Request: fold
Amino acid sequence: MRRIFTTIALTVTMVLGSMMTNAQPVHSFSVKIGIDHESVDSLGGRENVERLITDMFRRINKAFNYDARFDAIYHFEVDWDAFYIYQGISTREVFKPHPDHDYLVVMDGYKSHPKEQGGGWYGDKIQTVYHARTHNDRFNSPFEPGAIDGIIHEFGHARGIPDIYAMKVDADKNPINGQPFLGTRCIMDYPYGETYWSDYAVNMINMAGGRNIDIDDVVMKVVPDNIVINARWADGKAVEKATVKCYPVGWYSYTVQKEPVFTTEIAKKGEVKFSTENVFSREKEFGVKYSNCLVEVEAEGKKGYAWIPLYYLQNCWFDGKDSCELEITLKRDIKLTRDI
Ligand SMILES: [Zn+2]
Reply:
């Protein structure tokens, strides 16, 4: 009881504090937590686990509040009256409805059953974080620093941000120009030891605001209407005639596909504009079909390239533009070796 009172008092202080200083809205989300009994036993009993969970949520809430770029104060609030310890298979808990709470967190420190697969964010109608660790040793508890970094990333999904690492490309999986695509620094790219949200992540969190949302629905909405490719020679002159090919990258594939999904021509002034839908078509599963695209411009036998990762495309929308513009420079002569 004392704990609940403390939590409420703290929340009220936070709310009043924010109203007095900068009038930021406060978005609260209720969290129900279930944890498997083996984890509770190994971590020294229920009281210890409650303390660890309290510390964990202090860190989660801090991650969603230290950054001045957020439009609101975020508060993920554990409902201790709903807290429960379960016996049995964790993956069955993950899919249980939780109509009285925004989110369910299922914690499993051991994954002791072969059916206990996976982990991470379960979106759509499920809205659950399966916070699972694989190994049965005390150095891999659900509360170690890396595990907490991981659950902060999962709450990033809960607030509408897709995996930025799913937009990356491995050099050996790029048959078009052999270049890797490395992504951008963000908790949603690599969470371990990371405290930085990319501009894209901040934009998505701000857009989701206090609503209960699903990533795919949010992703689908923030697509600019057009893509504009601007091609120039290295001396600044416009490329007058060129072929433009868009090679797509599938989510989590790390691969540039061999065949372009869309081909067009630059006919004048080094510029072509086309509907984004030609490449990033809407679809139910991920919101848009591809996570990235390699654009190739070819003129006079020379080629130039640019990437359109989804975060770049959607940041154009967040900047209020109806077109996402890319500059591609072509070099007339590329020497592969130096003379001296
Ligand atoms: Zn993720």
